[in-house]
Amino acid sequence: MDLKLQKIIPQLITVLVVVLVFGFFTYNAQINMENRGIDFGYGFLSQESSFDVQFSLIEYDGSHSYFRAYLVGLLNTILVSVIGIVIATILGVIVGVARLSPNYLINQFAAFYVEFFRNIPLLLQIFFWYFAALRALPLPQDADAMLGVFFLTIKGLYVPAFVWENLNVFLYSIIAAIIAIVVIRIHARKVQETQGKQLPVFWISVGLIFILPLLSFLIGGVSLSFEIPKLKQLAATSFKYEGGISLPPELIALTLSLALYTATFIAECVRAGIQGVGKGQKEAAASIGLNPNQVLKLVVMPQALRIIIPPTTNQYLNLTKNSSLAAAIAYPDLVLVFAGTALMQTGKAIEIVSITMFTYLSLSISISILMNWYNKKIAIKEK
């Protein structure tokens, strides 16, 4: 038998088995739904949702459709995932490097952090931050201002809001700066390869990212002001802040829990990556006069990233999926809003669960594609 055919036949059999299994369950579900008089379809997405959500990044109320409710849950999930990934990455890198510090106190403190937070169940950490830590905060009328403009209360964190004029001009200036930086970096690489000269790309990039947005303020008509939260009395014992931006305690508790928990695993990825770089590389870098910080920044980390990125990608995926635990503290994420409230109201279990599963699958694949692209970008290319 042809070798190529031997490779194809097992794959065809596998695909056929998967299709048959999927077809069986689909047919079985269709028969059961027909027997119970249940209609299948996604037309309910255009119907009025008739329920409110306490926190939303877009305008929403009960008069909007179920599809709008789905978008609210999706955006809230993406928000907590992005913030959590950023904080977890920064904290994980710091703790991972600290675990290799020659300073005993720094080393042991980083080790204690890792062992403490990764060995406590994530759901329990969420409960701690929400029901213990944040519930101990003062009421709005008793809260002291932080830096005069921030208010952390039992009802959430209140921060000033940006009030822009001609925001589009400012955004165009940032886009122009980014395009210019990319062009300059490409040009600098060609100059270095052909002429052996190094252009000050970093300082040129810093200048562009500051100068172009600054010009939008000076000559582009862009202006920025701040709306400070102000305390308002609703009743004899009821107060709330108006104006600014309000971050609910559910978002704060969930973000802290996800970031602190995931950072422990990222820290171990960073530690393993750094230790995976040969000792000779560090000694060679030190022998030419580089200090420890320069050795870490210029020699160790660029090589360690090849080891760090793949397992760290898994942690980003875990953080995104773990955000579904938000339902435990009533944070209106995709699971609570769409796979919870919307499902109970419509009874469209198969449709809603399939949409929710496909959404998480899409988010995970998007993160994987982005991280795999970055991993290939930093990979050492043999000539």
Summarize the model shown.
With 383 residues, the protein is mainly α. 66% of the residues lie in helices and 7% in strands. The mean pLDDT is 87.
Please characterize this protein's 3D structure.
The protein is mostly helical and 383 residues long. 66% of the residues lie in helices and 7% in strands. It contains 11 helices and 7 strands. It has helices spanning 3-36, 66-98, 104-118, 122-133, 167-195, 201-218, 249-275, 279-287, 292-322, 334-346, 349-378, and strands at 151-153, 156-159, 161-165, 223-227, 230-233, 239-242, 245-247. The strands form 3 sheets. A 3-stranded antiparallel sheet has the order 1-2-7. The chain has a two-stranded antiparallel sheet with strand order 3-4. A hairpin with a 5-residue loop joins strand 5 and strand 6. Helix 2 (66-98) crosses helix 7, helix 8 packs antiparallel against helix 9 and helix 9 packs antiparallel against helix 11. The radius of gyration is 26 Å and the shape is globular.
Q: What percent of residues are in strands?
A: 5-15%
Order of helices and strands: HHHHEEEHHEEEEHHHHH
Query: Widest sheet: strand order?
Result: 1-2-7
Q: Indicate the low-confidence ranges by residue numbers.
A: none
Any idea what the shape is?
A: globular
How much is the average pLDDT?
87
Helix content: 55-70%
Q: Distance N terminus to C terminus?
A: 38 Å
What's the count of strands?
Answer: 7
Classification by helices and strands? mainly alpha
Mind describing the biggest β-sheet? 3 strands, antiparallel
Radius of gyration: 26 Å
Number of helices: 11
